[in-house]
Amino acid sequence: MIAKVYITLKNGVLDPQGQAVQKSLHLMGFQGLSSVRLGKYIEVCFEDSISKEKAKEELKSMCEKLLANTVIEDYRIELP
Amino acid sequence: MIAKVYITLKNGVLDPQGQAVQKSLHLMGFQGLSSVRLGKYIEVCFEDSISKEKAKEELKSMCEKLLANTVIEDYRIELP
User: Fold this and answer.
1) Chain A: residue nearest B37 by CA?
2) Cβ separation A44–B36 shorter than 8 A
3) Do A35 and B50 touch (CB under 8 A)?
4) B9-56 per-position pLDDT tens digit
5) Furthest-apart CA atoms within chain B: distance in Å
6) Using the beta-carbon criterion (under 8 Å), do A46 and B24 form an inter-chain contact?
7) Closest to A67 in 3D by CA, of A43, A35, A47, A48
8) How far apart are CA A68 and CA B62, in angstroms?
9) Do residues B80 and B13 touch, judged by C-beta distance below 8 A?
10) B6 contacts in chain A (CB < 8 Å)
């Protein structure tokens, strides 16, 4: 089972990396962008013996403890 | 309009960063993971004057030219 985790900066937290990308895109001639924000996308593959409920619980714990910095980042978990 | 872009390593391309995360999770006591792969998640916000078709076309071009390294990475575009 492949779970997907999306980690994004919270609203209001500055994203200099995103701003740099936006500036580059603008310089390359892409018009009409109002903002670009970067985040992380993580695919976690569980062995088949793990149930969906157990996986969800573990993923939440992983995000809180390692994958996301919950002070400045939000996370979203997607299970198939 | 907010478009979402997912950038992932192609199958077969080694992901040392993902392996490091997997190892850390294992050491922290999370069992039953068969793989962890990291990618990027980008939110691109277009001004309202841009049509969906135009945005899709521009995003494709952005990915090919700047956002993704198409030699080793795949990209997926999601429009609302």
Assistant:
1) A43
2) yes
3) no
4) 999 999 999 999 999 999 999 988 999 999 999 999 999 999 999 999
5) 50
6) no
7) A43
8) 27
9) no
10) 41
Grouping H, G, I as helix, E, B as strand and the rest as coil, residue A79 is: coil
The domains of chain B, with CATH numbers, are 2-78 (3.30.1280.10)
Is-contact A47 B26, C-beta < 8 A? Answer: no
> Which of B8, B34, B65 minimises the CB distance to A28?
B65
Tell me the shortest Cα–Cα distance from B40 to chain A, in angstroms: 5
pLDDT tens, position by position, A54-74: 999 999 999 999 999 999 999
* Contact yes or no for B32 and A47 at CB 8 A: yes
Say which residue the tokens 């993704």 belong to.
Answer: B68
